[in-house]
Amino acid sequence: MTSRERVLAALERREPVREPDRVPYLEIGIDRALAQRLLRWIGPRTQRANLEGNPYTPQEAAELARHLGLDALPYVLRAPVYARKVEGLDGRLFYAEGRIRRRSDLALMDLPDPEDDSLYAEARSFAAAKGDYAACFVTRAGIFPTMLSMGMEAFCAAIYDDRDLVVELLDRYFDWCVAVARRVAGLGFDVFITTDDLAFKTAPYFFPQLFRELVMPRYRRLAEVVTLPWIVHSDGNILPLLEDFLSLGIAGIHPLEKGAVDIRAVKRDWGRKVCLLGNVDLNLLGAGTPAEVEEEVRLLIRDLAPGGGYILTSGNSLAGYCVPENVEALAAAARKYGPYARPPQG
User: Fold this and answer.
1) Long-range contacts: 147-155, Cβ < 8 Å, 24+?
2) pLDDT score of 194
3) Which pLDDT belongs to residue 205?
């Protein structure tokens, strides 16, 4: 199988289900500072990056994929978030307080025109250079940039005090994503990924009833135009909302964060309906040993690979604080333990 065929086989859960030749391995994000250490790229060592833009050329993405044995190349295009950005360790950017607190602040919003062909020129070139890899288009659906642009406290207060403002932001962001999703299908990508964090480690940010009333109608509108296999990302315990997402026809759920979700229970209860992606512990990748990482991968593949429907990834993305030797151990373990046993022929 090619990498693309491997990823698509794992995402396909319609009967009869099939196993690929080996468990696919992908990452939806790799900090450039880590890539520089892994590949000894020359340049300033910093984690600073455009949080809404694509960090790698097609050639750089393919070089990373070859080095780590990845089966997919992610391309990032997200709508702007209207929040202050602050620098953490090594210049890594984080969103701080939101800038849209009242209706007059909507004048700050200036989303790029999703009908402008020039917005997709780089994405089209990226997909055209994918070779045998699966090309993944990574964006946000609309709920997370709404929360970030308002700030969590202001967002929660506005749900009750000024819901019309929340609805306006949600519609602007979801309208943008719907228009983008329509265009992506014709650009040569193989997978559509939305990254909207919706949960703490213990539970979703929303009561399920509020989520279904306020957010799900907009997700349904997006589902009407998504024609590629769709992977939904959210950190934390998203399980109370999982049936809602399955009703949209999503293909995969990522990253089933360790410490928030029991991925083995998810495999038991939902594994025939949706592909599971995850959940190598980021604490191990940042502070463990290569031997511990290898054992983590071995057990995940042992427990989750049978019957297909599992793609190995880190428990979020490969951050700059990950130890390069541990990332190399993750990649090596994927190659070592990933192949499916096949009965002898003849």
Assistant:
1) 147/98, 147/205, 148/81, 148/83, 148/95, 148/98, 149/81, 149/82, 149/83, 149/98, 149/99, 149/100, 149/109, 150/98, 150/100, 150/101, 151/83, 151/97, 151/98, 151/101, 152/205, 154/98, 154/101, 155/98
2) 98
3) 94
Distances (CA, A) of 58 to 62, 116, 123, 135, 192: 6, 22, 10, 10, 17
Closest CA to 195 of 111, 246, 136: 136
Which pTM value belongs to this model? 0.95
CA contacts within 13 A on the Cβ side of 296: 25
Extract the tokens encoding 188. 């040569």
Whether 312 is covered by a domain: the verdict is: yes
Query: How many structural domains are present in the chain?
Result: 1
Domain of residue 243: give its range: 3-337
Identify the helix (H) or strand (E) that includes residue 211.
helix 208-214
> What pLDDT, on a 0 to 100 scale, did the predictor assign at position 346?
47
Beta-bridge partner residues of 93: 87
Q: Let me know if residue 96 belongs to a domain.
A: yes
Q: What is the CATH number of the domain that holds 303?
A: 3.20.20.210
**Which residue ranges in the chain fall short of pLDDT 70?**
44-49, 89-91, 342-346
Beta strands in the chain (DSSP E): 72-76, 83-87, 93-98, 134-139, 191-195, 230-233, 252-254, 275-280, 310-314
Question: Is the alpha carbon torsion for 285, 288, 291, 292 positive or negative?
Answer: negative
In a domain, 344, yes or no: no
Q: Taking all residues of the chain, what is their mean pLDDT, rounded to a whole number? A: 94
For residue 199, report the phi and psi dihedrals to the nearest 5 degrees.
-150, 150
Asked whether residue 345 is assigned to any structural domain, the reply reads no
* Contact between residue 67 and residue 60 where contact means Cβ atoms under 8 Å apart: no
User: Distance between alpha carbon 230 and the CA centroid of its chain, in Å?
Assistant: 10
- Strand bridging mode 93-98 / 83-87: antiparallel
Beta bridge pairs of residue 225:
none
Residue keyed to tokens 């009967």 = 15
Q: What is the pLDDT of residues 155-165, one digit of tens each?
A: 999 999 999 99
